[in-house]
Each structure stands twice: as structure tokens, then as C-alpha cells.
Target: Glutamate dehydrogenase
Amino acid sequence: MTYIEPAPIKDKENPLESMMQRFDAAVKILGISDEMYYILKVPARQVTVGLPVTMDNGQIKVFEGYRVIHSTILGPSKGGIRFDPAVNIDEVRALAAWMTWKCAVVDIPYGGAKGGIACNPREMSAGEMERLMRAYTIAMLDIFGPDKDIPAPDMGTGPREMAWLMDEYSKAKGMTVNAVVTGKPLVLGGSLGRTEATGRGVMVSALAGMEKLRLNPYRATAAVQGFGNVGSWGAKLLQEKGVTICGLSDISGAYYNPRGIDVEKAIAYRNANNGTLEGFKDAELITNEELLALNVDVLVPAAKEDVITHENAGNIQAKLIVEGANGPTSASADDIINQKGIMVVPDILANAGGVTVSYFEWVQNRIGYKWALDRINRRSDRMMKDAFDNVFETSQKHGVSLRLAAYIVAIDKVASTYKFRGGYG
Ligand SMILES: NC(=O)C1=CN([C@@H]2O[C@H](COP(=O)(O)OP(=O)(O)OC[C@H]3O[C@@H](n4cnc5c(N)ncnc54)[C@H](OP(=O)(O)O)[C@@H]3O)[C@@H](O)[C@H]2O)C=CC1
Ligand SMILES: O=C(O)CCC(=O)C(=O)O
Model:
């Protein structure tokens, strides 16, 4: 029997610390009461479960899984499930709070949650992943529910895992409940457009930021860190809008070509190469650290948190950062980036396209209907652009960064909803 120990919690530069620093700054500007501060800060519910799973070699491994429901003030909680070796409870707490703020920024009727399991999907077979996901679903039967808490994919998970979750949940309830999870395969009630939705929202946010900076997409260059769901779709859709993608990366390294990389070709290469860009020939191999410092107009961190810190923020040359990942910039880098005059479209705005189309999926499941792709794209693009404009206006009004403005918009919305609900007891 083996116990898979979760990643240790770092004292500093951890996502929870970064989230709290921005939250505190926004709360100060809004002048929120002490009572409200703690109502918004403390997660509504946190669950940790031990998950014994029989591995292919017959050995039992015990994994630790989490679900944190940060808030249900705006509606049932919503947020993805992450499978990654670095998962720990603090990371999930930060990610859950970001979901609350994200749903509020794009104005969808959800609270925020996140789940995670400390595991390494790259070292697990499909059968092991399935047993782990089913064990997690059973452990969370009382937490999940189409009117309570609705999971979705995040790093290391996708439609396949969501299908297992839906199946296990439905079996336990004795009926098909497809609205319990979003990001499902199309045949199980998944929505058209969900797979590419987060990358599409990144593209819409990038174009909105470029317009403010008067950058012509046809003359602009970009580098994208992370080539999974968000990074590959973000890069592809930006390229379709005329942007030259000079850099791409995954865990194997970064790939640079100043004349531009054909993103479709890179995706085909990755798909045929066991999911990795390793050995990609149409570009020079550089490091992920070098990719962040490339002389490009737009930088899209779309891999993981805390990749831009006070140690490397000074090297960034991009004029615009569009945060595809959750928490890619640690709070210690904010001042440096602001002093350099770099515009940052923050995570809780830039990557909200995914949860927006998840919301559409949930609505379609509940009314038993399927919308066409052009309708979904039109609506989600509109919602992303409206959210960008609202955050931009708020930043002008308060003289603050887009990041702080996004927190102000979100916290104000959740706090005033709480007051209207009369929840002071
Ligand atoms: N999926 C979604 O709808 C949403 C995702 N997000 C956020 O976007 C980010 C990415 O998620 P998603 O695309 O779904 O995840 P995936 O697992 O599909 O992809 C993650 C990508 O990041 C790469 N990566 C991991 N670590 C590093 C590193 N140290 N340096 C460079 N690249 C690295 C991975 O490389 P490799 O494959 O080689 O391991 C992979 O290409 C996460 O922060 C997630 O929370 C936010 C909103 C919605
Ligand atoms: O699609 C969803 O419901 C949530 C996606 C997610 O986890 C995120 O936006 O970080």
C-alpha cells in the first residue's frame, strides 16, 4: 500500500497568498465592512478525502482529493477538477475563490468551487484514472449536484473524466443526471464550443486589450506558455485573427520561431507525439523562462500558477499579458509589471470563457435542448467583451490596474447580492 503525499504548502508566493493580497487591496478600495470581509474570505465548505485505488499492478495507492466550495452566494458553486502532482488544499482554496470572482466578473449565476487530486496523470493508465475519478465521485456524492455544486475539467482532466463522473453520479442516483457536470463529451450532453471556449475567451480578451493598446493583430506577435487545452486553442484562434505566434511551450521546453509557428502543425505534431511538443522541429528549442522574456507584443501564460514572479517580471518585454492560466502571476510581480506599464488582462477575466460556455452547457442540459455553435460563440464572445469593457471602465474610474478592477467588480457584486439576500442572520 502506498500513500501519495500531496505537494507541501509553500509559505510565500503560493496562489492563496496571491489571491488574498489582491482581495485585500480591492476590499480596501470598496470600503467593505469587517463582517463582509470574513463572509467573503472564508470558504463555505472544504472537504478532504482519502481515495484508495487499485493500480494496474494490483497494488493499492491512497490518493488525497479535495473539493473546496468558496461561495454559493450567487448560485450553485462551479469549478473544475485538477489532476496534478502539485495539488494541495491551499492551491484548491485559491482556485475556488478565483471561481467565485470569475463567475461574478462575467455575470453568470454561480458561486465558486474547485476540486483537485494530488496525482500524476502522465504516469497513470486510463484504467487507473477511471478508478480514481469514480472513487472521487463517490466520495463527493453529497457535495456534487446540478443545483448544488457542478464540476468541470481543469488541468489534467477533460471530457473523458467528466463522462466517468457523470456516469458514476447517475448510477448512484438511479437516473441520468447530465447537468451535474459540464465539459462532457457531446454525446453525453456536452455543449458545442466548450472544448475551445477558454482559449476562445483568451483570444477575445487579447483582441480587446490590443485594441486599447492600438496594436494591430496583423502586425502583432505573441508567445504562449502551455500547450494543453487553453494554450493550444488560444494560440490557434489568435493565429486565425492574424497574430504571429512566435513561441509555444509545454513541460518539455519552449519552441521559438521569430517568423511564426504554424499552430495547426504544432497541434498535429503534439497529438501524434504522445501529447508533447518534445522534438518539434519547426522552431528553436529555448527554455520556458526564455519564452516569458521574448520580445513579443502579447504574452499568454496558459500553463500553471506562479510562473511570473518578482524574480523574472523585470525581464518581460511584452506590452500585454493575457492570463489564460489561473494565477500565473504571483502578487509579488504586480508592482514591477505595473511600473513597466504592461497591461494585464487578469485570469478571472481572461480565462472566463470556459465557465461561460459551461454555464451554457448546464442551461442546455436543464432545458433538454442543444444550441448551434454560432449561437454559443456569439453569446460567449459578447459576454467576454462586455466583461472586459466593464472591468476597463472600473479601472479608469478608480485609477487601478485591470486586475484590481476585476476584483472590485466581482467583490462588489457578491457583497451586494449577499446584502440583498439578507444573510446577516
Ligand atoms: N481547461 C479549462 O477550461 C480552463 C483552464 N484554466 C486554467 O488554464 C491552465 C491550463 O489548463 P488546461 O489547458 O486545461 O490544462 P492542460 O492539462 O490541458 O494543459 C496544461 C499545459 O501546460 C503545460 N505545462 C505544465 N507545467 C508547465 C510548465 N512548468 N511549463 C510550461 N508548460 C507547462 C502542460 O505541458 P505537458 O502537457 O507537457 O505536461 C500542458 O501543455 C490552468 O491554470 C487551468 O486552471 C482556466 C480556465 C478554464
Ligand atoms: O467550466 C467550468 O465550470 C470551470 C472551469 C474552471 O475550472 C476555471 O475556469 O478555472
User: Anything to note?
Assistant: The radius of gyration is 20 Å.
